[in-house]
Design brief:
The structure is a homodimer of 284-residue chains. Chain A has eleven helices and nine strands. Chain A has 284 residues and is an alpha/beta fold. The first copy, chain A, folds into two domains: 171 residues, 3-Layer(aba) Sandwich (Rossmann fold); 98 residues, 6-phosphogluconate dehydrogenase C-terminal fold. The radius of gyration of chain A is 21 Å and the shape is elongated. At the A-B interface, helix 7, helix 8, helix 9, helix 10 and helix 11 of A face helix 7, helix 8, helix 9, helix 10 and helix 11 of B.
Chain lengths: 284, 284
Amino acid sequence: MDNSDFKGKNILIVGLGLMGCSFADAFRDLYPQKIYGFDINKEITNYAQQKGLIDEGLTKINSAILGECDFVMICLYLDDAVQFICKNMDGFKKGCIITDIVGVKRKIVSSVQEVLRDDIDYIPGHPMAGKERQGFGYADKKIFKGKNYILTPTKFNKSDNVDYLEKIIKAIGFENVVYTDPEKHDEKIAFTSQLCHVIASSMVDINVDDDISNYEGGSFQDMTRIAMINSKMWSELFIANKDKLVNVLDNFLTSIESFKMLIEKEDPKLIDKLDIIKKSRESL
Amino acid sequence: MDNSDFKGKNILIVGLGLMGCSFADAFRDLYPQKIYGFDINKEITNYAQQKGLIDEGLTKINSAILGECDFVMICLYLDDAVQFICKNMDGFKKGCIITDIVGVKRKIVSSVQEVLRDDIDYIPGHPMAGKERQGFGYADKKIFKGKNYILTPTKFNKSDNVDYLEKIIKAIGFENVVYTDPEKHDEKIAFTSQLCHVIASSMVDINVDDDISNYEGGSFQDMTRIAMINSKMWSELFIANKDKLVNVLDNFLTSIESFKMLIEKEDPKLIDKLDIIKKSRESL
């Protein structure tokens, strides 16, 4: 596997939501032999097939088909993804690559590692792309353009396979492939992504007005757009990363408290603090 | 005064920063007789004159010129704006309109009201437009396009003058003129604008990384852009509105705390809460 395409390869996409269908849309450009799409919802597999995103839809996993797939992309929520991989471990094709898109990595990596066969390569990943809207109807390969994709390979991965996955990721539009380990991934993500989602949700939570749009210059709308999140998926991710996220939330609460104090006391140090922050943000 | 232009009128813009120069740029299209620009910094008045934003720059207020101006736009920070209006009260032209752009309204309205002459019309305003970058070099009339402009007229204002100001505001690109009183303005702004700025600043405050951009999908950059604020101006505005802002910060802290609790306890109510918030944000 050393070209950045899927020529002669069978692909299986597991879970045909926004992300699964967007990957199907993007993978089509890489000349796969066949794209199979699995989803428990028959309406969704029919839709994906009609739209030409997949060649064949499955609502149950068939071991003959699973045994043919060279590349398996798991686009399920955390617990479902773990369950799917573990339950089907015996069925995967010898030498296949399995990857996933779950937004926190420690739990899935350790759970899969426990049952992983030696002759298949599971490379954990996290594409930093998406949409506020959920569901296959919003699928679009353009959401990957210019984005980051984090990989947390393990010592068991073949470096050829990791290189191949990086080429595929870049071929479908991602700009930057970042390598780290699950521990560091989950720590960073607690700050850059999960904190943002909790803040946006809290801002909407405390809003008592419906005419807010008359009184704003855009900041409020911009900052709360990501409050329209997939509640079930994000709750699962927040809880799976709760040690890191609670730590970040504590730091954030302390900082807001300290601003509140400076404002209450009309402390001139407020200007210095904002000045330092301004310079720090400018340098990012 | 019933046309939406400045034909035959002398305009004075006080303070030639980002906003003052952007207004000068926009006012030029309304056929003013003459635009005077006041700034204590000679370099800035020279720049504005060279760029054709103003016809004549002043670094000191000359009572002959002040007595000629039909429309005075005060683009100074809060305390400077109050001081300028109060100090020059005797010099303004009989019948002139004065307006300001200060981001909190209770303090300036009550301070000016105390010394206001009966024969001039002070109409307080707040354009909800700006840029993260400050200074005349970033001035651009396009920043007003499609934005909100809040006016908090008093019982002393002539309705013809208020109507005229609304026409001027719309003529330079603002889409929506919203009327309210200083009390309600300051309450709304504490939430829609000041809270956003404190949050963005806190997020940057607790960041310990310089490779943050590798680990994000855009939310962090988007939410912290407004942390690059004008420290002196915003400190003054936060403090002038501290009762309202501290109240909003308390509500926000309580909401973040409650999210933290739900996450720590792995409480399934987290999903319901996020679901309600999602629907509430979608309806905005």
